[in-house]
Amino acid sequence: MAAMQWTDKLALGLGPMDDTHKEFVDHYNRLLQVTGEALLTELDAFIAHTVAHFDQENRWMEQVDFPACHKAEHDRVLAVVADVRKRMERGDEALGRQLIQELPIWFDNHVATMDAALAAYLESIGYDTATGEIHRPPQVDACGNPVEAGACCTPAPVSPVEGSPA
After folding, report:
1. Which of 14-18, 24-28, 90-94, 159-163 has the lowest mean pLDDT?
2. Residue environment code for 57-73, b if the CB has 16+ CB neighbours within 10 A, otherwise e
3. pLDDT tens-digit map of 88-142
4. What is the average per-residue pLDDT within 29-44?
5. Please, which of 74, 96, 108, 146 could form a disulfide with 54 given CB 3.0 to 4.6 Å?
């Protein structure tokens, strides 16, 4: 298995997120260097990092009311990793190696989609990751929907109930 490399395509321009992603890559690469009991020890360190990594992003998302599908993906990944870890402890190192082989594919996709959307949104609202302050709150219309600056709320036309006069 090839080591993951930190590249510009993984950099999203949100310092704390980029730093955590660099650490993810480092933890992943350490998994490639060990076997047996040492692999379980490194996997535990990787899991601890990943829990903290996801908790950080989840806090940001909660503070800005970001869509929950991103957190749900974090939860699924942690569930899979925990299950694989248990199976490895019972002797299934091959399953652990399969997980390790698939992690870079997942990570590249997750960073390019979900994390990129989160980073762009946090930037757009002027979110300070250190304080949790929002310096440019999103503008919403009277219906609570996000709008471009200067746009107005235009309620959608109400369709007539079937059988009622239009």
Report:
1. 159-163
2. bbebbeebebeeebbee
3. 999 999 999 999 999 999 999 999 999 999 999 999 999 999 999 999 988 766 5
4. 95
5. 74
Q: Which residues contact 87 (CB under 8 A, 6 or more apart)?
A: 95, 96
Task: Please report which residue ranges of 111-141 form alpha helices under DSSP H.
Answer: 116-124
DSSP single-letter state for residue 127: B
Residue 54: count other Cβ atoms within 10 Å of its Cβ.
Answer: 18
Reference 31, options 49, 9, 51, 52; nearest CA is 49
Count of helices and strands (H, E) across the chain: 5, 0
User: Does the structural domain 8-124 have CATH classification 3.40.50.300?
Assistant: no
Residues 6+ apart with CB under 8 A from 146: 138, 139, 140
